[in-house]
Structures are given as C-alpha cells and as structure tokens.
Task: structure prediction
Amino acid sequence: MLEILHEDNHCLVVNKPAGLPSQGDDSGDVCLVDLVGADLKHRYGKPGKVYVGLVHRLDRPTSGVILIAKTSKAAARLSLQFHDGIVEKTYLAVVEGHLQVEEGTWIDALKKDRQKNVVSVVAAGDPESVEARVRFRVLERRSRTTLIELKPLTGRSHQLRVQLASRGLPIVGDRKYDATTRLLALDGKPRIALHADQLRFIHPTRGQVLEVLAPVPADWPG
Result:
C-alpha cells in the first residue's frame, strides 16, 4: 500500500519503501510507477491508462520521498526544476565508521561503468566524468557508525553512495560500495541505510514552495 505524503490535482508525493524500483527495469519486478498508476486508477475510477510522470528517481535499495507528476504540464515544469537545481533534497544516511569533521562540502569527479552499473571517483578532468557536490553534517556519532545528513547539490547516479564509500564511509548495507554489513528491508530483500528525508520544490501551477517530509521506515537502523 502506498504511503501518500501529499497529493493535489498536479502532484503526488509518496514515501517509497526500500526494495521497490522507481521505474521498470530488466528484472520485470513491479515498480513504483506501476503501483501509482494502479492506485490512481482505482481511487478515481479512471478508465484507460493513467498518466504517471516520474520526474526523479531513487535507487531500488533506498527509501524515502519521491515526487510524481499527475499531468504532463506539471511533469515538464517539475523536470525543469530538477534540471536547474531548484529542488532541494535532504537525505539521511547511516555509515560505517566516523568522520573527523562535523560538516562541510565534498566535491568529486564521478565516472559510471554502465555495463556493471557501478560509479567510481576519478581524477578531476577525466573527459568522461561529471562533477558531484554534496553538503554533509554529522547528526549523531554511534559506537561503530555515524548518522549523517546529506544535501546533494547535483543529481548524479549513485552519487551519495560512492562519495561516502570513497572516503571510507560506506553506507550500512551497501555491499555494492564496500560495506561490510548487511541490512534487510521489510520484504526481506537487501536495502541500504539511505533515506530521502525531505523534498522542497515549487508547486508547478500555484507557484508556492512545498516542503514534504518522509518518516523513516520500520526497517531503518535505529
């Protein structure tokens, strides 16, 4: 069942569970777009295909707030906001290890191996790389892990996961990026301790600023 955080005639914001892909992929698994389409069709009794505009994505093992457009006009305007860096995103991450500083900004050059679907940090100036920037702040230091708030300033594939792992701070459960720990979602499948906590955007038709928070799920590591 979808956890709806906000809905109006143009926008739908949901709290995506970990383990659910945002959109269809080669696995053929049910995805968020499928569930949203079925939900809208059922609740509003709409005949035929329902419009579901996915304007950004979260990785399958990541949970949290995700914005969906209910009209093509809203989709175009919201996509432009993401492209122009107007949308503000905040994540929570539990990482293995500890940081030596309380806050700051990390800037890296990232390169993606599309065949392996893995991203790595490379030397600045690599012609195939893209710049990734993120602000970070320590929220809580635990015995073996640290809770961090992350505000990405760019939207790169696997950006937060690889920027943390490259500093010896892999996200708990993220075996793809060198974590030694395992973490399971509510459905028993692997997840990582990365949660999209907050999304701040401008409503596509009203012009007002909306800020939506997504509660951490039951499978979040305390």
Summary: The two ends are 23 Å apart (CA to CA).
